[in-house]
Structure formats: structure tokens, C-alpha cells
Amino acid sequence: MRFCPYAHRVHLVLDAKKIPYHAIYINLSDKPEWFSLVSSSTKVPALELVNEPGNPVLIESLIICDYLDEKYSEFPLYPKDLLKKAQEKILIERFGQFINAFYYLVLHDNPEQLVDTDHYDGLVVYEEELKRRGTKFFGGDSPGMLDYMMWPWCERFDSLKYTFEQKFELSPKRFPTLIKWRDFMIQDRAVMCFYLDGQSHAKYINSRRSGQADYNMLYNEAKRVKLG
């Protein structure tokens, strides 16, 4: 699904490694009959490995991304040092706490009640970690796996000002390092391949908040432009 941040993770790794692939986007409220034969969980993302015997299918974004990094090892996204690799995986796993807080905010029935809640507390460890490393990216001079696994939700930060005005924007005073990181990430080739601006993300999030998630929003907009 085009707006799924977990599928977004897989696109980033595929594009970072320049792996040829064909994307099929589905409507999650009207899944095609064949999808249950492809994805055992009927969730996205699902990656069919058409060059492997029997066309096996992988599911779960982190499992897919780890497989791609090991399979296409010419451009590794994890550190070669096993301890550092394990520590990166811990930070990726820990980021799930922030993901939960983000969804709690954007899908809450009455966000006005959450103005005094610290939704970004889960990002403090990443602000401090990147500051400690003293590099542009968590991966060093170029994005690594941690950068790409965090990015889909960080790309959506800019949508909050359209959905909630200025009430929940990331604080430059509290997160100066992460804000600089965000600006660097937007310039990355893999990020640009799949990038959507804040207004587009906000439009989709608002459709989901209304209970009528518009999974085909970009397709319908392109169709209208073509017909016009």
C-alpha cells in the first residue's frame, strides 16, 4: 500500500541498493483474491522473490530488509562489526515505542486532549545518539539501516502542521540534530525515489482519521489530471 510506512521501509532498501523490482499497490479495504496466496498474513509489505525456486514470499518489513542487506551485500547498510550491528538492531527495535506514540496522536479522536502529552519522548535517545556519533547520518557519511528504518515516520513529521496546525511540530530547540538529519535525509537518492510531501501524507492521514482511508488517492489524482 503506497502510504504504508512499513512498506516504505522496503522501498528505501531496494532503492538504496539499486535492486530492480516491480511494485504492486493494493487497496487494504478491498484486497485482491490472489493476495492471500502471496502474503500468508495478508498484510503488507510482501516481497515475492521471483528469481528463487518456487517464488517464495517474505513478509514483515524488518525481516525483508535484513534479507535484502545480506543477499545484496555489495552495499551493506549494517555495520560489519557484529556488536555494532546488534546495537543498531536494538535501536531499530526501540523505535517501535515512538511509532506507537505517533499513531496514538495522529489517529486520536480528539487530539486537543493530547496537547500537553510528550509525544516525542521516544526520540530523545536518537537525538543524543546521533549527537554522540557526530556524523550526518546514523550510518556515517551516508544513510545506513537505522536511518532508513526510522525515516518513513520522520518523513511524516511535516504532515502534522497540515493536520494539527503548529501544535505538534518537532521542536528545533529540543531536537536540533534530528532536524538537521531530516534535511540531509531528504537529499538522499533512495529517499527521493519514494518521497511524498507533508501535504500528501496529511491528506491520506485525514482520510484515515475520517474512517474512509483513501488508499488509491495518488492514483485517482493522477487519473483526474490525465483526464483533465
Task: Report on the biggest sheet.
Answer: 2 strands, antiparallel
Indicate the proportion of strand residues.
under 5%
Number of helices: 12
Mean pLDDT across every amino acid position: 91
The percentage helix is 40-55%
Radius of gyration: 18 Å
Low-pLDDT segments: none
Query: Could you say which overall geometry the principal axes of the C-alpha atoms support?
Result: globular
Structural class: mainly alpha
Give structural attributes.
3% strand; 12 helices; single chain; 228 residues; mainly alpha
Task: Write up this protein.
It contains 12 helices and 2 strands, in the order H-H-E-E-H-H-H-H-H-H-H-H-H-H. It has helices spanning about 5-15, 35-40, 60-70, 80-95, 95-105, 125-135, 145-155, 160-165, 175-185, 190-195, 200-210, 215-225, and strands at about 45-50, 55-60. It has a two-stranded antiparallel ribbon. Helix 1 (about 5-15) runs parallel beside helix 3 (about 60-70).
Summary?
This protein has 228 residues and is an all-alpha fold. It has helices spanning 5-16, 35-38, 61-71, 82-94, 96-106, 124-133, 145-155, 160-164, 176-186, 189-194, 198-209, 217-227; strands spanning 46-48, 57-59.
Task: Outline the fold blueprint.
Layout (H helix, E strand, L loop, with lengths): L4 H12 L18 H4 L7 E3 L8 E3 L1 H11 L10 H13 L1 H11 L17 H10 L11 H11 L4 H5 L11 H11 L2 H6 L3 H12 L7 H11 L1
Antiparallel strand pairs: 1-2
